[in-house]
Structure formats: C-alpha cells, structure tokens
Amino acid sequence: MDPETMETAILAWSGIALPNAAARVGLADHLALIEAFAALRGTLAFEDEPSSFEAALRDEMEPPR
Amino acid sequence: MSARTDMSMTELAGAIARGETTSLAATEACLSRIDAGNPTLNAFIRLDRAEALEAAATADAKRASGATLGPLHGVPMAHKDMYYREGRVSTCGSRIRRDFVAPKTATVLEKLDAAGAIDLGTLNMAEFAQNPTGHNREFGDAHNPWNPPFCTGGSSSGSGVAVAARMVYAALGSDTGGSIRLPASLCGVTGLKGTQTRVSRSGVMPLSFSMDNVGPLTRTARDAARFMAVTAGRDPKDPTSAREAVPDYEAALTGDVRGLRIAVPQEWFFDGADEVVVAAFETALDALKARGASITRLSAPSLNAVATCVAVVSRVEGATIHATWMRERSADYATHLSARIYGGYALPATYYVEALAHRGPLLRQFCTEAMTGFDIVATPTLRTRVPTLAETDIDADPANWHRFMAVSANTRPFNYLGLPTVSVPCGFDERRLPIGLQLAGRPFAEGRVLQVADAFQQETAWHTRVPG
C-alpha cells in the first residue's frame, strides 16, 4: 500500500489526519514493519492447543537446582 | 551531621538505621546536588522541597523513638512523573496532561512510602514515555550528566540523570521498550526491568498494556535488589500482576558466579555495533569469566521474529491509548511523538492479534535456543556510542528518524519476551560517555540476573564513577 492510500485509510478508519511532515517518515517506517511482518508468513505457526504468554512465562522459569 | 551522596541506597539506609547519619542530612545533601546540577541537567519537573524536609525530619524522629524501620527508611528518592499520587499533578511529561491531577496513588508509591522512602518530587521523562532519547519539548530535554549535549536515554530520562548525578539515591523508571535500561546505560547507572507482571502497574500511566514494566534505576545491583523486593508482588488492584512469591533478592548476591553459564546470541544485538561498545562488552565478559562463569556464543534465530512482533504490539497499543487525543489535540504532541503514534493506525488488526498470539511460542523458542543449558543472556544495552540530542532530534529534522529508532534496538526484544533484564555500566568511550552491559534471565529469575550484575560490580568499579 502506498503512503497516500494509507493516509486516506487512517482518516477513514480512525478519524485522524496526518499530524505533520515527520509522520510521513514514520508512515514509511510502519510500511517497512508491515513488510517485515508479512515476510514472517510461513515461519510462525499458531498452536492447536490453547496457550497464553503468562503460561509460557511460568513454564520457562528456572528449573530447581 | 553530614551525609554522603556517593553512598549507595542500601549503604545510606544502613547508615540511617545505625544512627551514623540522618534522613534530614541526606535529604539536604540531595537538595544541594539538585540546586547545583538541575539548571544544567533538567532532571526534575517538580521539587517538593519543604515536604521532603518535613518527611525526613519525621523519619528521623521515628528512628529516635525506637520504632521499627522499613528497609528504605529515610532514603531520598524521586520518580518519573507518571506515577500517580492522589491530588498531585502528574504531567506524564506532556502538555496534554500538564494539569492532570492524579485521582489515586500508584501501588508502587504506596509500597515505597510504607518502606520509609522520602519522595523529593517528580522527574523529567519523554512525553508519555514514548522516546528512547530523553527529548522533551514541553519541559525541556534532560541532559547527560557526563556530557550535556548527549542523550540521557529515555524514556526515564530524569531518573537516569538524577541517580547518576547523585541528586537522589534511587528512582522509579518504567520500561516498555528499554526505558529503564537505556537511561541506566547512557547515564552510567544500574537499571532493572523485572519479568512482565512482576510489579503492579496500578496508578501508572499506560503506554502499552502488554509490555509496560515498573522498575528502579539505582547506583548498584544490590540497591536494585532491595528496591525490587519492596515493590514486587501480587496487587489486587492490578489483576495482571503475577502471583509468584517474591524472594529475598539480596540473599542471592553472594558474588559467586562459579559454574554459571552465560549465552551470547550472535544475531541482532551486534548489527551495526560500534567497535568501542563491542570491546567494552567483551572486557565485561572476561571479568565474569574471571569469576568463574562460562561464556558461549550461540545462535538465536527467533530474534528476527521477536524484533518484528514487539514493534507491532507496542505501536498498535500506543496508538490505541492515544486515539482520542490524536483526533482532538494532535498539535499538543511534540512532532516526533505524533509522527510515531500516527503510523500505528495503519497496522492491520490481524497482525496485532497474530503478534500477541505468537508471544508465548516465541518465548518458548527463544528459551530453547538461548537458555537451554544457560542461566543468563548477555548483550550490549546500546549497540552504538551514545548519540547527541541534536543527531536524534526528529522535531528539528525528520531525517534523524532512523538514528532515533536505533537507540532501543537491543532492549525492545526483552519486552516482548517478558524476561527480567538489567543494565549495568561496563565502560566508557573516548568522550567520557558510559557503555552498558545488558543481562537477561529466565522468567522470574530477577535474583539470578542481579546475582550476576552484583558479581560484575564486585569485580569492576564502573558503577562507582561519578559525573562532574
């Protein structure tokens, strides 16, 4: 998606207009982030079983010494 | 009776308890340091001089009466201006909240009060805790006490400055992407981010619900251990706070790291690193090795996904929290802040949900890659030498965007992973600016992280250096 389309979408979705010129640089950075996330497709899989981050924190605690 | 501002927090608490000095003397000494340093460094937003002196005198009277004293009895502190105290203005470093009167007191402040700490006032910070450099348009930039044209690190800029410049003995920061560890690294002090959910966030300005953390900036790892023991634990007012018991962190500080295994991931943390930073980091590893720890370089390929997911989660949550003000008062934000928030509205909801859903699995994967058979992960806190305020000022020139964003590259992954992480000083560059060593442990292993940090500080003297 190009930055102009993104600006239009943000205005339509959130009612927020481009606040300043620096936000265009920020938007380009966000578009790069979207590309980076899209590039992860196929490398990350959802688990079949229910899981939560809090459960992972508990599971990965130090084993008793 | 005089008090030495170069003492650590725990040393001062001990000296007060033994009657070797008084809280009033320590508070007066801090106020003198503030009077001398603050006009240049701009660490404080609000100074409650009279109230602090009165509280210190009351603390001394309590000791004289033979009453039981808390573990921080009489110790002067000040905290980032986003910790609410009922009836007091909490600006959150912003124009938008310049007159916001807090409706409640943060649990963490109640705990510090109960432990006997003296509150000197509120500290400068990045606007709404949203930059890693220390810029603040509304209250003025905080300045690095080692070299004022340089960044302090953010967002807990005033906390880093005030502890380093010996204006206070400890300070609360907050850490969503490195905001405790970065000012600790750039100002040459110790900063601890606990495990996600370790410390209550009730009464604390939110930035990212999933990754906000409350924690201390202190002179030493021992100070951080005591501070964390006082502030951590389950809080009914914060249903996200962890139920795990809070151990005696100071008991873990034996100085003995023989047999501990330290992993150094080769991905991510050294991309574009400055030579002087890598050299200081390697010397720090040698110091730990000399005390009996082993060092292993390894691969942690999950870091690429972690670094991407952390950005998705934090940007969407930050944008969500600020949506109303972005619609109604966007001109009241600094340019760099509204510019950063704005892009968050362009991220698809499915990406956000997916990034959150992968958080547990990626934590497990990272622990498998980097912590199976290892106790600690070590990295530099900041990959590069400390940048200047000018070269990271987006408001002056949007071309500074990438230099600005790079500051938190090494700290952000540990917010997504939720792991306890500390930064301690491990050297200085040729411009007399500090370099930080970052140590991360398994979930709820704050004691292990502090054990290694403390052993490092027993082996080296970087943390004892005082700016000025």
Automatic annotation (TrEMBL), chain A:
- Output the superkingdom of the source species: Bacteria
Q: Would you tell me the protein name for this molecule?
A: Uncharacterized protein
From TrEMBL, chain B:
Could you identify this protein by its name? Asp-tRNA(Asn)/Glu-tRNA(Gln) amidotransferase subunit GatA
Q: Does Ubl conjugation count among this protein's keywords?
A: no
InterPro entries per UniProt: Amidase, Amidase_CS, Amidase_dom, AS_sf
Q: Which organism is it from?
A: Plastoroseomonas arctica
The answer to whether the entry has keyword Ligase is yes
Among PANTHER family, the record links this protein to:
AMIDASE AMID-RELATED, TRANSAMIDASE
Molecular function (GO) terms for this protein are: glutaminyl-tRNA synthase (glutamine-hydrolyzing) activity
So what EC number does this one have? 6.3.5.7
Which UniProt keywords are present, listed alphabetically?
Ligase
Amidase domain: residues covered: 26-450
Please tell me which top-level EC class this enzyme sits in: ligase
